[in-house]
């Protein structure tokens, strides 16, 4: 039955782990700007587009 | 592809001026150049993300010359070491994903820039660059060249990097962590199953619950203890007192219950309560970070000015200006201190001060007041005062600015808790007294149960959620309030005071009327081409007003400053300007701006410039007059009194020729007579009146850049909805009252459990979240419903075509002595 102590301890430890992650997120400034990163992550696809144009100027269909 | 819109900035392309470049059309060379820069650097994606995202570049980039001064640069940099410099610049034009993309790719335009990061809400960009490769001035010029003119003001100058306070976020996080875990660990107790293994581990579970409740009780709820203590000391019965009392009693009772093994205690309800109340606080604390409600003249004044002395030009911080200094002011620069004009003429635009956007013509020897923006050729002036001693800036030494914020918060919640707390304590002691004759143990239980169940959680959540929601609804409709308390004050207003110029008149539109013999055919063509060549503000307006014609070459062109212009086109001699210049007779009315026209020495007619009243002004005021007293307060002379009398509801009081401090005194006098005032103004000269009034609303054509200190900023495009906003504030208060009734009902139900001595933890655990959720749902739905009925809905985002401060100033209406 002492497995209960183990399980509860693990679950609390996991919860504390998430809590530490939360504190670190606040510290690193994630709560300062909650909009720009959501736009920024979409840019990676757009960034690749200009590259072929510089290598191959006749790309235009 | 829409050929009438500029591919870069989206503005309509003027007739005959379209520039076609690489299959796209542009409205001007500036836009075309930016497109060229971007496409040559492989940054075409800028135009793929959003349609026409750009802004027209400003022609006068030298307004940032002061960045050559190293002292000033050092103060603006937030980090400065060897090869790494970091600067945070405010860019009002940031408005879409294209803006983020291009600004974060600045390093592709100049290798000296290492990285750049945009904060969209704050409309700012943080640029890391290498000072050995380029200077801050070059960085700023690069931004100007691509249409993203940064906004550098005295306010930012010398400001230390702000540390945002995250304690509220931490408290909420801790409260949620404790609440969630305790809820899970409490489940076995809810079912009260007499199973061996549940019983066996009960102690372990309860110990964990107790430990988990400690951070929530000690840290997350700490704000309520301090608030309750403060209100006790000032002898005011706030809502925080019963809350703090409820929390503490709940904790003690739970510890006792657990220690003597009476039951599991109320830790689950306790942490739930703390979490929900902090959630309400966070919800209410919606802030518009790109707006500033505390701006004073410092936000608009430049950081530095050019001083002439010892035969050379020198950039000095404006605080160093001393009486007697000779200053050089360039086109679009702000006059930083009162002084005497030394150059023959100057056109000064006082739109920041008065809302009147027609430049004033000053002659040599005239006094120039601080706050005006120079239009046209550079001037020299002798400073008479230092910056803080000038006519306008002195206003900020008035006591009303010092006591702002110290105003006591009169909220409906606190008004209710005046009665709530004594009644609650009376009931608790009555219960204690009654039960102590029967059973000591039950008496303690009843006493604590009353305080626990009556803990005004639902009551305390009503106002934050209602007002927070209404605040958001306003924000979507473009009325941005400083905080939720403003809504409560709005609902109590009985008198509305409007500023005239720039508030009920539009600062961006003008009306031009023509009297005289008809202009047509070749005469019209010639006139239009004559004014086309001129850069004078009135010529620009006239040019836009006249119908489109073909473009002709001008044979000769001569402009006499302060007089008018003369041009030869198609063999006609055209003179446009003042009456004596053209040779016309003018029955002079000083309040109107007129431009006379003659062709071949025959006076044809006169163009009159009127300030235009805002769209929908008349129905709006008529609607408002049914519930409020309306007054108009103007810094101008009474030249428009008759026009206003027709527009305004009958018996509207109109006061003219008011100086900034007189406006403040006018509001104060009304308040002393027991009125509650909402002031609606726009310019810096209204700042005193806005600060003094119960609710000061600044109306702004561009909310990002210009507004004096106030309680709320109203986008000019939403002006016609004012009456709906006022009605919604009253509806919000009604919603709160209904919700109070509902939450008192819950309290009565809970009290009946408590007084009969049967409050089980399970009942508390059900009643508390249930009441919270129904209250939140009720107020949110009701306030949304009210807003929809009043048609306060999301406005279509106006394509924000803002091009920096210079542009607002270039929209001109009429000459008038403004200050």
From TrEMBL, chain A:
<dbReference type="InterPro" id="IPR004714">
    <property type="entry name" value="Cyt_oxidase_maturation_cbb3"/>
</dbReference>
<protein>
    <submittedName>
        <fullName>Cytochrome oxidase maturation protein, cbb3-type</fullName>
    </submittedName>
</protein>
<keyword id="KW-0472">Membrane</keyword>
<keyword id="KW-1133">Transmembrane helix</keyword>
<keyword id="KW-0812">Transmembrane</keyword>
<dbReference type="Pfam" id="PF03597">
    <property type="entry name" value="FixS"/>
</dbReference>
<feature type="transmembrane region" description="Helical">
    <location>
        <begin position="6"/>
        <end position="26"/>
    </location>
</feature>
From TrEMBL, chain B:
<dbReference type="InterPro" id="IPR023299">
    <property type="entry name" value="ATPase_P-typ_cyto_dom_N"/>
</dbReference>
<feature type="domain" description="HMA">
    <location>
        <begin position="85"/>
        <end position="151"/>
    </location>
</feature>
<dbReference type="InterPro" id="IPR008250">
    <property type="entry name" value="ATPase_P-typ_transduc_dom_A_sf"/>
</dbReference>
<keyword id="KW-0597">Phosphoprotein</keyword>
<dbReference type="GO" id="GO:0005524">
    <property type="term" value="F:ATP binding"/>
</dbReference>
<dbReference type="Pfam" id="PF00403">
    <property type="entry name" value="HMA"/>
</dbReference>
<dbReference type="InterPro" id="IPR036412">
    <property type="entry name" value="HAD-like_sf"/>
</dbReference>
<keyword id="KW-0406">Ion transport</keyword>
<keyword id="KW-0479">Metal-binding</keyword>
<dbReference type="Pfam" id="PF00122">
    <property type="entry name" value="E1-E2_ATPase"/>
</dbReference>
<feature type="transmembrane region" description="Helical">
    <location>
        <begin position="237"/>
        <end position="256"/>
    </location>
</feature>
<dbReference type="Pfam" id="PF12156">
    <property type="entry name" value="ATPase-cat_bd"/>
</dbReference>
<feature type="transmembrane region" description="Helical">
    <location>
        <begin position="203"/>
        <end position="225"/>
    </location>
</feature>
<feature type="transmembrane region" description="Helical">
    <location>
        <begin position="736"/>
        <end position="756"/>
    </location>
</feature>
<keyword id="KW-0813">Transport</keyword>
<keyword id="KW-0812">Transmembrane</keyword>
<dbReference type="GO" id="GO:0005507">
    <property type="term" value="F:copper ion binding"/>
</dbReference>
<dbReference type="InterPro" id="IPR036163">
    <property type="entry name" value="HMA_dom_sf"/>
</dbReference>
<dbReference type="InterPro" id="IPR006121">
    <property type="entry name" value="HMA_dom"/>
</dbReference>
<dbReference type="InterPro" id="IPR001757">
    <property type="entry name" value="P_typ_ATPase"/>
</dbReference>
<feature type="transmembrane region" description="Helical">
    <location>
        <begin position="762"/>
        <end position="785"/>
    </location>
</feature>
<dbReference type="GO" id="GO:0043682">
    <property type="term" value="F:P-type divalent copper transporter activity"/>
</dbReference>
């Amino acid at each position: 039955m002492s497995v209960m102590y183990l399980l509860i301890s693990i679950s609390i430890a996991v919860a504390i782990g998430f809590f530490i992650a939360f504190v670190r997120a606040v510290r690193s400034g994630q709560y300062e700007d909650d909009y720009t990163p959501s736009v920024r992550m979409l840019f990676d696809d757009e960034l690749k587009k200009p590259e072929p144009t510089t290598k191959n100027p006749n790309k235009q269909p | 592809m829409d050929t009438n819109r500029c591919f870069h900035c989206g503005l309509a392309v003027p007739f005959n001026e379209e520039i076609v470049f690489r299959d796209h059309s542009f409205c001007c060379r500036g836009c075309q150049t930016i497109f060229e820069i971007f496409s040559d650097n492989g940054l075409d994606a800028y135009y793929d993300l959003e349609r026409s995202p750009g802004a027209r570049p400003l022609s006068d980039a030298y307004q940032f010359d002061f960045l050559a001064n190293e002292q000033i640069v050092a103060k603006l940099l937030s980090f400065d070491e060897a090869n790494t410099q970091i600067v945070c610049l405010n860019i009002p034009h940031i408005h879409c994903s294209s803006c983020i993309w291009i600004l974060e790719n600045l390093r592709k335009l100049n290798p000296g820039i290492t990285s750049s990061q945009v904060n969209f809400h704050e409309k700012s960009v943080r640029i890391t660059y290498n000072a050995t490769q380029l200077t801050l001035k070059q960085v700023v010029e690069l931004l100007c060249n691509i249409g993203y003119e940064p906004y550098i003001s005295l306010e930012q100058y010398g400001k230390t990097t702000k540390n945002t306070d995250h304690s509220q976020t931490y408290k909420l996080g801790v409260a949620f962590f404790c609440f969630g875990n305790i809820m899970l660990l409490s489940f076995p107790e809810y079912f009260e199953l007499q199973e061996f293994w549940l019983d066996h581990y009960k102690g372990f579970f309860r110990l964990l619950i107790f430990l988990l409740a400690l951070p929530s009780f000690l840290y997350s709820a700490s704000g309520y203890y301090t608030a309750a203590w403060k209100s006790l000391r000032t002898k005011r019965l706030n809502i925080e007192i019963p809350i703090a009392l409820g929390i503490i009693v709940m904790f003690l009772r739970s510890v006792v219950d657990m220690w003597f093994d009476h039951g599991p205690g109320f830790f689950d309800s306790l942490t739930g309560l703390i979490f929900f109340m902090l959630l309400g606080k966070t919800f209410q604390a919606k802030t518009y970070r790109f707006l500033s409600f505390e701006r004073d003249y410092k936000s608009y004044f430049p950081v530095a000015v050019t001083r002439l002395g010892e035969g050379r030009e020198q950039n000095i911080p404006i605080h160093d200006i001393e009486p007697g200094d000779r200053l050089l002011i360039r086109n679009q620069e702000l006059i930083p201190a009162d002084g005497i004009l030394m150059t023959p003429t100057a056109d000064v635009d006082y739109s920041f001060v008065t809302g009147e956007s027609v430049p004033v013509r000053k002659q040599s020897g005239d006094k120039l007041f601080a706050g005006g923006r120079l239009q046209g050729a550079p001037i020299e002036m002798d400073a008479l005062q230092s910056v803080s001693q000038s006519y306008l800036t002195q206003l900020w030494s008035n006591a009303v600015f010092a006591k702002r914020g110290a105003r006591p918060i009169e909220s409906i919640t606190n008004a209710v808790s005046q009665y709530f707390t004594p009644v609650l304590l009376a009931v608790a002691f009555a219960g204690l007294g009654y039960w102590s004759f029967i059973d000591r143990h039950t008496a303690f239980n009843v006493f604590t149960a009353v305080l626990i169940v009556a803990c005004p959680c639902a009551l305390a959540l009503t106002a934050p959620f209602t007002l927070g929601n209404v605040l958001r609804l306003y924000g979507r409709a473009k009325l941005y309030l400083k905080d939720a308390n403003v809504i409560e004050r709005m609902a109590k207003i009985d008198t509305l005071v409007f500023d005239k110029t720039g508030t009920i008149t539009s600062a961006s539109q003008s009306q031009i009327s023509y009297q005289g013999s008809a202009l047509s055919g070749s005469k019209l063509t010639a006139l239009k081409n004559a004014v086309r060549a001129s850069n004078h503000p009135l010529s620009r307006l006239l040019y836009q007003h006249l119908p489109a014609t073909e473009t002709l070459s001008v044979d000769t062109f001569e402009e006499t400053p302060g007089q008018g212009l003369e041009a030869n086109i198609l063999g006609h001699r055209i003179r446009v300007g003042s009456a004596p210049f053209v040779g016309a007779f003018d029955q002079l009315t000083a309040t109107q701006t007129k431009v006379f026209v003659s062709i071949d020495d025959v006076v044809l007619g006169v163009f009159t410039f009127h300030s235009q009243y805002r769209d929908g002004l008349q129905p709006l005021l008529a609607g408002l007059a049914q519930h409020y007293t309306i007054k108009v307060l103007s810094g101008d002379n009474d030249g428009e009194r008759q026009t206003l009398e027709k527009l305004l509801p009958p018996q509207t009081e109109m006061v003219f020729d008011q100086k900034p401090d007189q406006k403040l005194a006018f509001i104060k006098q009304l308040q002393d007579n027991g009125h509650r005032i909402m002031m609606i103004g726009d310019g810096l000269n209204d700042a005193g009146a806005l600060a003094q009034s119960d609710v000061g609303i600044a109306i702004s054509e561009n909310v990002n850049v210009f507004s004096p200190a106030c309680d709320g900023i109203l986008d000019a495009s939403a002006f016609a909805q004012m009456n709906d906003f006022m009605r919604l504030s009253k509806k919000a208060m009604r919603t709160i009252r209904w919700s109070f009734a509902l939450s008192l009902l819950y309290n009565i139900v809970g009290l009946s459990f408590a007084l009969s001595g049967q409050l089980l933890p399970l009942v508390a655990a059900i009643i508390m979240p249930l009441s919270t959720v129904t209250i939140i749902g009720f107020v949110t739905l009701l306030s949304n419903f009210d807003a929809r009925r009043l048609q306060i809905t999301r406005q279509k985002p106006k394509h924000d075509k803002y091009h920096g401060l210079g542009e607002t100033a270039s929209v001109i209406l009429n000459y008038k002595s403004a200050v």
